[in-house]
Each structure stands twice: as structure tokens, then as C-alpha cells.
Design brief:
Oligomer: single chain
Helix content: over 70%
Number of strands: 0
Distance between the termini: 33 Å
Radius of gyration: 20 Å
Structural class: mainly alpha
Order of helices and strands: HHHHHHHHHHHHHHHHHH
Largest sheet: none
Shape: globular
Strand content: under 5%
């Protein structure tokens, strides 16, 4: 039986709060972090190296922290500890001026910043299903916060300069640990597995599944195709003479349209299916990145940024639906961590460095490399649709042994 409406509303607010704080900072950093780095004297190639190196650390951190949370049976304590560490590293960035200092801090930051998101998404997938909530509608508040973070960072940079990117991000990072305490404490892993009627599984069991590997490849490439945009989008638009407030509006617009898609996420999932949603994201990437390689006209960028609703949101919703259907509840933490680490993380680590090299050599035309990335991902999801039957890949329902 689902919770009463008031209780469900409170549960939704409780679940959404941490994501809102996290994505407020993410909005500031994703849109303006390269501007902060360039202000500290970091070159374009070095920016690519920083993003790539951080992603490598992210892979290691997400896997190891996900395994720890999987063993502990609940991620809340881990998320709180990482939130406290993030505050310390923001202070370290403030006093880092050389490339070496920024590199060292970035490596530690990568270990602290990325692992909480797959753990949080794992909590959302389980708790929204448990309380009869729509995952997409709870997660959309993270997107709303991202918009505010982007706008405020853009206005702050326009008025006070690039150093304010750090200060805007810090405003919500200080809230991460307290808000993580509002997340529900999970039941012990063994108990959860027993109650659900699904058998425990090993990570190796999951990684031996061709459908899971195809899923990681398709979704990982879809998310990695944003690498040139995330690393050099703001710098490209600034170079074209677009002011910072307008740039922040372009970033905010992309996420605002993403929210609209999330409102209809359940309907789209019912019509397109899991693989269809992922394919929608990759198809939009083919259009978006090809066009961005050839234009910085504001009217065109407005249209192309609207495609973020597909290249990110549709793919993300498809990925969460896949994990919810392919893994039992007690495997959420490790499944999410594998997706973020090997799918998004490892793939982006390579593509970020590739993006830096492309951009330093070809400038705006580097977006064409992301078109190729999207095309490879499309091939992977087509094979996935022919391989996966829509059911559990591991942890199949236990059959009682005869007594």
C-alpha cells in the first residue's frame, strides 16, 4: 500500500533536498569551471588533462566507495562523510594557483565529489518505488537547482569576475552533509535480499552479462558525448562574443527543457521503452554536436541547447529504468556505482582528454568528434535492444530448496 499524499509529499521533499544542493553547485561548476581554471592560468590542453585525470580518479573512487556502501548495506553515512570532505577541498582550491597545486586538489576532489551521485540515485530509485513516487519528478528538482546555480554563477562572474565561481559553489556544498542526514537509512543488505526474494550476486556476475556491458557502453558514450560542451562550451561562446549572462541563460535553458521532459518521463518510458529512451538521447546527440561544430549564432544555440532534454535527460531516465529492471533492490548501490564509474566515468575520462586535444587543434570543430561518439553509442543500444529481454540480469528469484 502506498503512503498517504501528505506523507508522500514529505518523503519527496526529503529525497529531493540533497540532490538540489548537489546540483546547485554542479550548475555553477559545469558551466563556469573552465572559466575559473583559465583565470588561474590553465591552458586548454591542461584543462582537458584536468578533466580526464579527474575522471580516472572518479572511476576508482566510485567503484571503491560503491563497494563499501554495498557492503555496509546503506550509503547515507558514506554520503555524509564525502560531503564534509568536499567543504575542505573547496578551501584548498581557493589557495591553489599553480597547475600542479590545482592538479593535486582536483585529484582529491574527484574522489570526494563524484561517488555520492550514484549512491544518491540508488536511494532515489529504491525509495521512489517504495513510496509510489515518480523518480523523474523527484529528480527534476535537482535540475531546477542546477538552473539556479548556473544563473547565479553567470551573474556573479559577469559582475565580480571568475573567482566567484568557487564561492557560488561553496554556498550549497556546505549543505550537503546536513541534507544527507535526511536520506533514509537502508536496511542491512542481507535482510533486503531476503525480503525481496532475490538472491545475492557478485560484481563479477553482473560484469559477465553482455546486456549490462552494452548498456554501459551505450549510456556511457551518450553522456561522454557532452565532453566538448562541458569543457569548452562556455569558452567557445565567450570567444564568439556572447556575454556571461546570456551564456548562463543558455545553460539554464538546456536544463529547463530537461525538466519538461522529466515531467513526461513516465509517459515516454511507456511509449519508447528503456532502449528507446537511450536511443532518443543518442539520436539527438548526432544532430546537436554536428550543428554545434558549425555555428555560434544565438538563435541556433537556443534550439540546440533544447536538445539537452534528450542527450542527457532521456538517456539518464533510460539508464535508471534499466538499472531498476535489470538489478534487484539490494544491488542498487553497486549497480549505480558501476554505471557511473565504468559507463559514464571511464568513458568520459578518455573522451575528455580526446576533447582537449581536439579542441586545441580544431577549436569549435571538435564537436564533430562527439558526433562520432554518439554514433558508436547508437550501434551499442541497437544491439542491446536485441540482447536484453527486459528482466533481471542477476539475483533471480530464489527457489526454496526442499526440506
Amino acid at each position: 500500500m502506498s503512503d498517504r499524499p501528505t506523507s508522500r509529499l514529505l518523503q519527496g521533499m526529503r529525497l529531493a533536498a540533497y540532490g538540489a544542493a548537489y546540483f546547485f553547485a554542479a550548475g555553477a561548476f559545469m558551466s563556469y569551471w573552465p572559466v575559473w581554471l583559465r583565470d588561474r592560468g590553465v591552458s586548454d590542453t591542461e584543462i582537458g588533462t584536468l578533466f580526464m585525470s579527474r575522471q580516472i580518479v572518479t572511476v576508482i573512487a566510485t567503484l571503491s566507495v560503491g563497494w563499501i556502501a554495498h557492503r555496509l548495506g546503506g550509503p547515507r553515512g558514506v554520503i555524509v562523510a564525502l560531503g564534509i570532505g568536499a567543504i575542505v577541498m573547496m578551501g584548498a582550491y581557493q589557495f591553489s594557483y599553480s597547475f600542479l597545486a590545482i592538479f593535486v586538489v582536483t585529484m582529491i576532489w574527484g574522489f570526494l565529489w563524484s561517488p555520492p551521485m550514484p549512491l544518491y540515485d540508488g536511494v532515489l530509485v529504491i525509495e521512489t518505488k517504495k513510496h509510489g513516487l515518480d523518480y523523474a519528478r523527484v529528480r527534476m528538482w535537482s535540475s531546477v537547482a542546477f538552473i539556479f546555480g548556473t544563473f547565479i554563477a553567470g551573474i556573479a562572474v559577469d559582475r565580480y569576475g571568475p573567482p566567484w565561481v568557487l564561492y557560488v559553489g561553496m554556498a550549497s556544498i556546505v549543505l550537503l552533509a546536513p541534507l544527507a542526514l535526511l536520506l533514509p537509512a537502508a536496511a542491512p543488505r542481507a535482510a533486503t535480499a531476503a525480503e525481496s526474494g532475490h538472491a545475492p550476486f557478485r560484481v563479477a556476475d553482473l560484469l559477465r552479462q553482455p546486456a549490462f556491458l552494452l548498456f554501459l557502453l551505450a549510456c556511457g558514450l551518450c553522456q561522454a558525448s557532452h565532453s566538448v560542451l562541458y569543457s569548452f562550451g562556455t569558452l567557445t561562446w565567450r570567444g564568439a562574443g556572447i556575454d556571461d549572462v546570456t551564456i548562463s541563460a543558455l545553460w539554464a535553458e538546456s536544463v529547463a527543457i530537461e525538466i519538461v521532459l522529466m515531467l513526461f518521463g513516465g509517459w515516454l518510458l511507456g511509449r519508447l521503452g528503456v532502449c528507446g529512451l537511450i536511443a532518443l538521447g543518442l539520436a539527438a546527440g548526432l544532430v546537436r554536436w554536428t550543428a554545434m561544430a558549425f555555428t555560434t549564432e544565438l538563435w541556433a544555440l537556443i534550439l540546440l541547447q533544447a536538445l539537452h532534454s534528450c542527450t542527457f535527460a532521456a538517456c539518464h531516465l533510460g539508464a535508471m529504468a534499466f538499472l531498476q529492471r535489470a538489478l534487484p533492490a539490494h544491488g542498487a548501490a553497486i549497480g549505480q556505482s558501476l554505471y557511473y564509474a565504468l559507463g559514464a566515468g571511464a568513458t568520459q575520462a578518455f573522451v575528455y582528454q580526446f576533447s582537449g586535444l581536439l579542441y586545441s587543434e580544431y577549436g569549435q570543430r571538435a564537436f564533430l568528434g562527439m558526433t562520432v561518439v554518439s554514433a558508436i553509442g547508437m550501434c551499442a543500444v541497437i544491439v542491446l535492444a536485441r540482447t536484453w529481454n527486459g528482466g533481471l540480469l542477476v539475483g533471480h528469484t530464489q527457489v526454496p530448496l526442499p526440506r
